TrEMBL record:
It catalyses: Hydrolysis of terminal non-reducing N-acetyl-D-hexosamine residues in N-acetyl-beta-D-hexosaminides. SUPFAM superfamilies: (Trans)glycosidases, beta-N-acetylhexosaminidase-like domain. The lineage of its organism: Bacteria, Pseudomonadati, Pseudomonadota, Alphaproteobacteria, Hyphomicrobiales. This is beta-N-acetylhexosaminidase. Its EC number is 3.2.1.52. InterPro entries: Beta_hexosaminidase_sua/sub, GH, Glyco_hydro_20_cat, Hex-like_dom2, HEX_bac_N. It comes from the Bacteria. It comes from Sinorhizobium chiapasense. Keywords: Glycosidase, Hydrolase, Plasmid. Residues 274-620 form the Glycoside hydrolase family 20 catalytic domain. Residues 199-271 form the Beta-hexosaminidase bacterial type N-terminal domain. Belongs to the glycosyl hydrolase 20 family.
């Protein structure tokens, strides 16, 4: 590893501007003085007033990319530091991850040099350490189950079988199901003792299978005795969930015998509370290798979650190979100082890319399908499309004034133009390839955060609006999304989108599923309009939100804080009128990746809140118990 030659330290003060002030200090740790350089850092706390900085010159910004130069004639000697301040911020910093996420220098000879960064410090206020996320747990029944079953009447035993195995006479599919969950366990707990064997064992206990379609496709029952375990299941998913329950019970009893036991008698009768039990992953802001995506799907299966919502495109990158448009995954994924896309969200001097080939997508979809997890792909349109527009500039109206509108994330002119015929040809060909890759009946098309004012400076869009009698951005968005829905319907697919799909007149409610993310009340409003709804409010189910108000706690803050206790206790259908509850199809966790610059940050923010949401998705409200969950959650696998 090369030694660090420059480091950027940053602090935030609540005084010094409407939203406080940054103080940056660049330290030259090299043996060589530098002059004529420029400093770039990326930060979600953006500068919106170019003049509001001292001892530096603000040069440009693109979303989270910021570039400065020192005063003219300045030279930074070896071992010396340069300090400058920046106010004119668009919001205050609330957490340690709100400062610079990455930095680099562009030297006078054009070379780009990495700069190390540290978390943001707080000055001028008390910085409290973050609290413990979980209390000491308490168990009424000593069973290690995540999520907790709908009904359990089991008696803990003093010992446990060494292993469980399919009874002689089990069908080929039943034996394969045991192998599937055994392999899942080995992948998640590589040092754990196998809960199953496919061969009979005198020290083990046999599993007697029985298909019972009346239990429903995801339902199962377990009956325990000292001689055998009887597993009745409605279909393949229920059989897998019953086996997963057995694996959790036996692993907990073996690894934490002082806390957990294995049943010696009694029953578990189980089925999910909701049909849609989802987890979303944003792979555009940060790229996750195929192995990481597969491991996350393994974790979802372990928690009996059944939907993997794969957010494949955004402003920052287009990650899905589309053979009709190869530049989407060449130009549309490269971020770097001289690449088509500027560095963002933790990128520095070295270019970064990454995408999923169609062969990798097929492997991931097959992996998920074997675990009864459905992959719902998302391409985020018409907004959040900077990467696509960089890759395919012909999708832009060349007469549209540059920077005529900006998204909430600061991207200029980032929405596909509904007035350009090529837009629809592009989407038709993208959808044609997607339906060959993804067997799900759903395709998610985003539809969120289109900036008010989008397209209004486009002569082509203005002409379309005049011809069709359309007034305003959101009515034009509705016009666009109705065409998209027609494309999907013609291909036998249902449209899924974020709640803003309903703006400006929305789309037809039949065969449309919307995700309520902005706040819980939005879901009820959508249900009243006739939409089916999945609840994923940022205030409880966004796993990038900070888990405490303490400055040292990492994460985002726009939706407040979401402690594990709050996430666990939140009841998505709590305020739904009785006559609308049939419109609520389930709940979903969302993993947005702006703050996930390391595996450590990922695991700290995602767990234990992901299993908390899994329990909310599966376990009846009356059976939820926060202290019981707190006792079991530390057994959770992590990425």
């Amino acid at each position: 590893m090369q030694p660090v030659s420059h480091r950027l330290e940053s602090a935030w003060q609540p005084e010094g501007g409407r939203f406080g002030r940054f103080t940056f200090t660049l330290v030259n740790l090299s043996e060589t003085p530098i002059s004529g350089f420029r400093l770039v850092y990326t930060s979600l706390t953006r500068v919106i007033d170019a003049a509001a900085c001292e001892n530096a010159v603000f040069l440009r910004r693109n979303a989270n990319f910021h570039e400065f130069s020192p005063p003219q004639g300045f030279s930074l000697g070896a071992g010396e530091s340069w300090t400058f301040t920046v106010s004119g911020l668009h919001r205050q910093a609330k957490h340690c991850t709100d400062g610079a996420k990455s930095a680099y220098l562009t030297l006078s000879d054009g070379r780009h040099v990495p700069v190390a960064v540290s978390d943001l410090l707080l000055e001028g206020a008390t910085s409290e350490p973050p609290p413990q996320r979980l209390p000491e747990g308490k168990l009424e029944l000593p069973f290690a189950l995540q999520p907790w079953p709908a009904k359990i009447d089991a008696v803990p035993g003093d010992g446990f079988p060494v292993v469980l195995y399919p009874a002689p006479g089990s069908s080929k599919d039943e034996i394969r199901a045991v192998d599937t969950v055994l392999s899942l366990f080995h992948r998640l707990f590589s040092a754990g003792h196998a809960p199953f064997t496919l061969a009979s064992s005198p020290q083990g206990r046999q599993i007697v299978f029985a298909a019972k379609p009346e239990l429903g496709p995801e339902g199962y029952t377990l009956a325990f005795s000292e001689r055998e375990i009887r597993l009745e299941y409605g279909a393949a998913a229920g059989r897998q969930y019953g086996l997963t329950t057995l694996a959790q019970l036996l692993d907990g009893a073996r690894s934490e015998g002082g806390t957990f036991r294995f049943p010696v008698s009694g029953t578990i009768s189980d089925q999910p509370r909701y049909g849609w039990r989802g987890c979303h992953l944003d792979v555009s802001r940060q790229f996750y290798p195929t192995a990481d995506v597969m491991r996350l799907i393994d974790i979802l299966a372990w928690f009996k979650l059944n939907i993997f919502h794969w957010h494949l495109t955004d402003d920052e990158a287009w990650r899905l190979e589309i053979k009709a448009y190869p530049t989407l995954t060449t130009l549309g994924v490269l971020r770097g100082p001289v690449e088509p896309l500027l560095p963002q969200l933790g990128n520095g001097a070295e270019p970064v890319g990454g995408f999923y080939s169609q062969d990798e997508v097929k492997a991931i979809v097959a992996h998920a399908g074997a675990l009864n997890v459905e992959v719902v792909p998302e391409i985020d349109i018409p907004g959040h499309s900077t990467a696509a527009l960089v890759a395919l500039p012909e999708l832009s109206d060349g007469q549209e004034a540059p920077e005529s509108y900006h998204s909430v994330q600061g991207y200029p002119n980032n929405a596909l133009n509904p007035a350009i015929p090529l837009t629809y040809e592009f989407l038709e060909r993208v959808f044609d390839e997607m339906i060959e890759l993804f067997p799900s009946q759903y395709i998610h098309v985003g539809g969120d955060e289109v900036a008010n004012g989008s397209w209004l400076a486009s002569p082509l869009a203005r002409k379309l609006m005049e011809r069709e009698g359309i007034s305003g951005t959101f009515a034009l968005q509705s016009y666009f999304l109705k065409k998209v829905k027609q494309m999907l319907t013609a291909r036998g697919r249902k449209l899924v989108g974020w709640n803003e799909v309903a703006h400006g007149g929305g789309v037809g409610t039949e065969g449309t599923l919307l995700m309520a993310w902005e706040n819980p009340k939005v879901g009820i409003e959508l249900a009243r309009e006739g939409y089916d709804v999945v609840m994923t409010p940022g205030q409880a189910y966004y796993l990038d939100m900070a888990q405490a108000e303490a400055f040292q706690e990492p994460g985002a803050s726009w939706a407040g804080t979401a402690t594990p206790a709050h996430t666990y206790a939140y009841e998505a259908e709590g305020e739904f009128p009785e006559e609308l509850k049939n419109r609520m199809k389930g709940v979903q966790a969302c993993i947005w990746s702006e703050h996930f610059l390391s595996r450590g940050y990922f695991n700290r923010l995602v767990f234990p809140r992901l299993p908390a949401i899994a329990e909310a998705a599966w376990t009846p409200k009356a059976q939820k118990d926060w202290l019981r969950f707190a006792a079991i959650a530390p057994l959770s696998p992590i990425l």
